[in-house]
Predict the 3D structure of the following.
Amino acid sequence: MQVSKGQSQDQIRVSPVANGETLLIDGQWTASHSSDSFSSINPATGDDLGQVSAGDATDVDAAVLSARTAFDERRWLSMPYPERAKILNSIADRIEAEMDELVVNEVRENGMPVPIAQRTIGGGVQAFRYYAGWLGKIHGQTGEIAAGDAFHAFTLKEPMGVAALIVPWNGPFMLACHKVAPALAAGCTAILKPAEDTSLNTLHLARIALEAGVPAGVLNVVTGLGSIAGQALAEHPDVDKISFTGSTAVGRRLVQASAGNLKRLSLELGGKSPVIVLDDADLEMAIPGVLRGIMINSGQACVAGSRLYAHSKIYDKLVQALSDAASKMVIGNGLDEGVQMGPVISQKQFDRIIGYIESGVSEGAELATGGERHGDTGFFIKPTILSRVPTSARVVREEIFGPVLSAMPFDDLDWAIREANNTRYGLAGAVYTTSLEKAHTVARAVKAGTFWINTPSLTDFWMPFGGYKESGWGREGGAMGVDAYMETKSVIARLY
Ligand code: NAP
Ligand code: MG
């Protein structure tokens, strides 16, 4: 793909959105009621990409009213389902047609290298096609009941109503698509709240949805701070459902804030995923797999394999090979050809990650590679491997969300499995081995919503995605992903 470097000086423009009028309410782009706004920053350069409106509780009230009115007036549901499917497919086509611009914007706002942005925005296209395919396949059941054949019994699947969709910054456009597509497929109306660090490119999704024929009020956007706009959505008595992807800490806050009207909650939260490498593993497969599993997107992936348990027979060889490969990774502006790793999202994350690395070393880990800033502009951190980390260290216990792998040797597989499960999280896990028996034993034993054998980080739309333990509530993807936006009603009719 040809990318003009000059573009990185430009702002992210979302015609017809005027600079700072980033709220979409009832089909109209508008500024926040208070006129407050903040900048979106390019993490590779520090450039200001444009103004984002800081929506507050008053703006959230307007967005909820818009979504509620559109739902009650059946602006979306009254369209026959083939028409709704056509609109969802048209959103996919339009994202695909604008792919190059969306990819460049995503790189400028998030920092990820172009190939990752191509894959993630491509994932957004697939999400709309996949969920468009659900239209016409969502239905209830009918069956005999014990009261006898004087009765006709059936179930109805109904959309929950107004859904608030709150997304993080690490895969902003794709994660927004992963929520908007199933919410609309289920027949809900929605309010999207992008992350404050990555709001601008996501606005293109809302513009495209309008252009594709999604009626006014069916998809609204409130940009703003999580603690204000997000919190107001969580507390709002007329929001029926929240689908949230983000940190476990904020997830816990949402549980409390949404208790008022007992909102339905889907929570895709953090992780501290273990990777177990056995002494019989094919290291040619394990080395790039483990490295990719943690360093992809600068470690800013919820499923990142951030804890490595490697058999002591291969431990030194593996850690050496991982360190060599990590130190050769090409770090830089994601728009530059050949770059494998971009910056982390913000100064705040940069400071947090460096703090974690320092704490790992002070708690007894050996620094095998990295551990410091790369270059002198932007928020770049060298891929970092901490070796022989004490299992009690914070870098083993807490989600870092940066390019930092904590490696530990083991002799006894049962110990490794116990340690793998010795965490509050349960999002993902992986094992590398050539033994079929051990692969499946470990896959069954690790408490995680997704597990990989001899491969890093694959997912698919039909496969349920979500976490055990404090990694979340519910599943996205497949039938469960659509069901997460629906209620089921039982109807019994007397016939005679
Ligand atoms: P975050 O701080 O939890 O923020 C996520 C979203 O919630 C943002 O839009 C944020 O707005 C908003 N928010 C913050 N405080 C809120 C509140 N009190 N009420 C309502 N909304 C609020 O997470 P992050 O740092 O942006 O993202 C990284 C986290 O996401 C990591 O823990 C990662 O593991 C997780 N994640 C999970 C998955 C998964 O599928 N399981 C996928 C990707 C990421 P602001 O941006 O304004 O703060
Ligand atoms: Mg945040």
